[in-house]
# Entry
Amino acid sequence: MKIEILEKNDNIIRVIVRDAEVSLMNALRRISLAHVPCMAIDEVVMIDNLSILQDEIIAHRLGLTPLKTDLDNYNAPEDCSCQNEFGCPQCRITLTLDAEAQDGTRTVYSGELVSESPEIVPVSDKVPIVKLTKGQKLKLEAYARLGTGKTHAKWQPVCVSAYKYYPKITTPTTACDDCKKCVAICPKRVLELKGDKISVRDLYSCNLCMDCVDACPKKPSLIQVEWEKNAFILTLESTGALPPERVLQEATKILGQQLKEFEEQIKVVEKQ
# Structure
């Protein structure tokens, strides 16, 4: 298997994976969404809520506020040695909020959450929680823990986890009077017209929609769009809870653990 990084920044990683099977790519996609853990607010204790929103709505908004995650220093509650329903400093983080509108209407943002750990804080300070009018206030304690997306979407570390076949585009070598139609119809602007000939401008943006092939007036079409059977482009976009490369690393670890457990179960069955 060969891997090549196409794009990588704080939130997105795109890689080309060659000599792989669809089953592997789909497993990584699903594990990234549903099994890689991250931090999210799970319980909220309302101390004082004079806002127009009910306690449950505010708690829901807090739960969906992405939190930066430290997987190396915190345990999932079910794996923590404390085995306490209230948690401990190794598996639970407390965040507090104390906001009041004194002079007029104001919006309370996620940046006002105060965490007991500098590592577990909101990804963005600009997530709106509630709007308060003069005299209203909101005071609460929120408790965050590790969880996985299979339990709730708030524990998904990625907002995009997708793959597609690696495209192959063959353009005509001779000039064509109707080439403008094929170029103009492409929704991703993959093709461009240089002089009177078509060339590929951005191969990796092709989503294999075949619009350019259908638009070609020549039959058979002078443009051929295909894909490599065992080559894929994998895209992960993080919510900010974890770096995208860490999400991919954790997904491969979890897949390895699942395969090992499956192998052990097969051995048990064979002995019966």
Notes: The first helix runs from residue 22 to 34. The two ends are 36 Å apart (CA to CA). The mean pLDDT is 93. DSSP finds five helices and twelve strands in the chain.
